[in-house]
Specification:
Layout: H1 3-18, H2 20-27, H3 32-41, H4 44-52, H5 56-65, H6 68-75, H7 80-87, H8 92-101, H9 104-113, H10 121-124, E1 131-132, H11 138-148, E2 155-159, E3 165-170, H12 171-176, E4 194-195, H13 200-210, E5 214-218, E6 224-229, H14 230-248, H15 261-287, H16 290-295, H17 299-326, H18 335-365, H19 368-398, H20 403-434
Length: about 425
């Protein structure tokens, strides 16, 4: 190497040491193999600084070309958080191979940072998101996208030199912009971002509220970690709804159609015992009117009618309210408005059903008094059932409980007790007046 080439090389290296972010942007214009060759010629401290400022896509391409010796040398010095972000872009098997090369301490630190709780945004995200800087031109973006050939890309994510999300540029905006236009000039604020530790319910809320095609996932420093793509957002919404449905009937959220028998029993049996206890509670109410039933045996025939109608009314209200809570259409502070609406719906439906029921009972039992009792009971029980179906999940949620997990069992208890109590209580109180026999 001539003296002038040596001086030029030293100047470039010195510049890169002073301005690693600008140096990294320059290196990104070269092939991954050339970048790796250049890094190997630098001191390990300079190489780490340059590598840390590379675009994640370029850094990952370089990572895939590293031999084990250089990988260990570089990643042992790299910030564990950054190392975790870059390694997470690899296939799971490859990640384990790479971590096994590092010391146990480094591997554990990096591995722990790569783990996210199930159902969290970090667990659901795709970390292989394509990012650009604001100084990139539309021409450079299109060239990169053509090389990647990823049809799932709908937004261009723009980050600063530290990887912090600055904004997005929709792909259609890129397509109609002039080739020399800088991304920073057509940058838009993302409709929403979500923290990596946020749970699925928050993701579903944003999906419903913002109508998103993709959701950027960031950390507390607003560093872009990945993106939850549209198909994952839809899957999250469906899974959240179906798990709520299972929980409403006492099955575990984690249970699947092909789960082990022992697992299914473990999840369901406690709720079956709770349901059994509430059933005995309802039976106690019936037992309290044993004398009345003994005298007017036909009452036992119509007990399931009253209980069934009130139960269905409550279930209808519960389903609507559960959906409203799941999709954030309502808040717990709106309980009175919601309860009043369901009370009125239950009352009006009760009147309509009571008329039909009383006519059937009159011709069945030839008892005008019994038809009046069951009509009044039907109106009372259905109105209270509608009210209960609305307030029970809201009360549970306000106390920090999962409304889907126990609402159905509590509601069944309330509707059975109210139905039996109103029907048998009215029959007992009005038997002599209405001539029920």
């Amino acid at each position: 190497m001539s003296e002038s080439q040596t001086i030029t090389s030293d100047l470039i290296s010195g510049y890169f040491r002073q301005f690693p972010d600008e140096g990294a942007q320059l290196l990104e214009t070269f092939e991954a193999g050339e970048i790796l060759d250049y890094l190997k010629k630098q001191s390990i401290s300079s190489a780490v600084r340059l590598y840390a400022h590379l675009n994640p896509e370029s850094a990952t391409e370089v990572l895939e070309l590293m031999d084990d010796e250089y990988f260990i040398e570089l990643y042992s010095k790299l910030d564990p958080y950054l190392a975790a972000r870059l390694l997470s872009r690899l296939e799971a098997k490859e990640v384990q191979v790479k971590l096994s090369k590092l010391s146990s301490g480094s591997a554990k630190d990096i591995g722990d940072l790569m783990k996210y709780p199930p159902n969290s945004a970090g667990f659901m995200m795709d970390s292989r998101v394509v990012t650009f800087h604001g100084t990139h031109t539309v021409k450079e973006v299109l060239k990169k996208l053509r090389a990647i050939k990823d049809r799932r890309i709908v937004n261009i994510y723009v980050v600063d030199n530290q990887g912090r999300l600055e904004g997005i540029v929709p792909l259609q905006v890129v397509a109609i912009s002039s080739p020399g236009e800088l991304l920073k000039n057509i940058l838009q604020t993302p409709p929403a971002t979500i923290h990596a530790m946020a749970d699925r319910e928050e993701i579903v809320e944003l999906l419903e509220e913002k109508k998103l095609l993709g959701l950027p996932v960031v950390d507390f420093d607003n560093i872009l970690l990945g993106v939850i793509r549209n198909e994952e957002l839809l899957n999250a919404s469906v899974q959240d709804a179906t798990e709520d449905l299972q929980a409403m009937f006492g099955a575990g959220r984690e249970e699947r159609a092909l789960s082990k028998v022992s697992f299914a029993v473990k999840k369901r049996l406690p709720w079956l015992h709770i349901n059994l206890a509430t059933a005995f509670l309802a039976s106690f109410v019936v037992g309290a009117f044993e004398d009345t039933i003994a005298k007017i045996t036909i009452l036992a025939v119509f007990l399931p009618v009253v209980a069934g109608q009130s139960g269905n009314t409550g279930s209808q209200a519960l389903a609507v309210i559960m959906r409203g809570l799941a999709l954030r259409e309502i808040r717990t502070t709106q309980w009175f408005r919601v309860a009043r609406k369901e009370l009125m719906v239950g009352f009006l439906n009760g009147i309509a059903v009571a008329i039909t029921t009383s006519l059937i009972v009159y011709f069945w039992a030839s008892s005008f008094g019994l038809s009046i009792v069951i009509a009044i009971s039907m109106i009372i029980s259905m109105a209270i059932a509608g009210f209960s179906g609305a307030v029970i999940p809201i009360i549970l949620k306000s106390f920090g409980q999962d409304p889907a997990q126990s609402s159905s069992i509590v509601l069944t208890t309330v509707t059975d007790i109210v139905g039996f109590l109103s029907f048998l209580g009215l029959a007992t109180a009005l038997a002599s007046v209405l001539g029920i026999s």
